[in-house]
């Protein structure tokens, strides 16, 4: 009986994991929020060679543009938060 309960619990956890994870996926399709020139947009940037750790950078729209990033285009995939 205990084995049956354990197997059922494991099956429920495995089935629920993709459902709960999908709510927090990046790429929800929401546009970048409007802000002032001083507003900083925090987005994930590509990991450096040799590491799998993603970096989070917070820059203004102008600073992102100087680095070749279009905030409106990349926000749905990489956007995290807005400061200011």
Structural write-up:
The chain has 84 residues and is an alpha+beta fold. The chain has one domain. The chain has helices spanning 2-22, 61-66, 71-78, and strands at 40-45, 55-60, 79-83. The longest helix has 21 residues, at 2-22. The chain is globular and about 35 Å long.
Topology:
Layout: H1 2-22, E1 40-45, E2 55-60, H2 61-66, H3 71-78, E3 79-83
Antiparallel strand pairs: 1-2, 1-3
Mean pLDDT: 74
Distance between the termini: 56 Å
**Order of secondary-structure elements:** HEEHHE
Number of strands: 3
Oligomer: single chain
Q: pLDDT under 50 segments (min length 5)?
A: 5-27
Q: What is the helical fraction, as a range of percent?
A: 40-55%
The fraction of residues in strands falls at 15-25%
**Largest sheet features:** 3 strands, antiparallel
Radius of gyration: 19 Å
How many domains, as an integer?
1
Structural classification: alpha+beta
How many distinct helices?
Answer: 3
State the strand order across the main sheet. Answer: 2-1-3
Which geometry do the CA atoms define?
Answer: globular
Q: In brief, what are we looking at here?
A:
The protein has 84 residues and is an alpha+beta fold. The protein is 42% helix and 20% strand. It has one domain.
Features:
20% strand; alpha+beta; 84 residues; 3 helices; three-stranded antiparallel beta sheet
């Amino acid at each position: 009986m205990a084995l049956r309960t354990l197997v059922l619990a494991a099956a429920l956890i495995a089935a629920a994991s993709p459902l709960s994870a999908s709510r927090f996926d990046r790429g929800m399709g929401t546009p970048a929020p409007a802000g002032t020139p001083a507003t900083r947009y925090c987005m994930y940037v590509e990991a450096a060679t040799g590491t799998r750790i993603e970096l989070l950078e917070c820059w203004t729209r102008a600073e992102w543009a100087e680095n070749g990033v279009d905030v409106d285009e990349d926000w749905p995939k990489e956007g995290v938060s807005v400061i200011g």
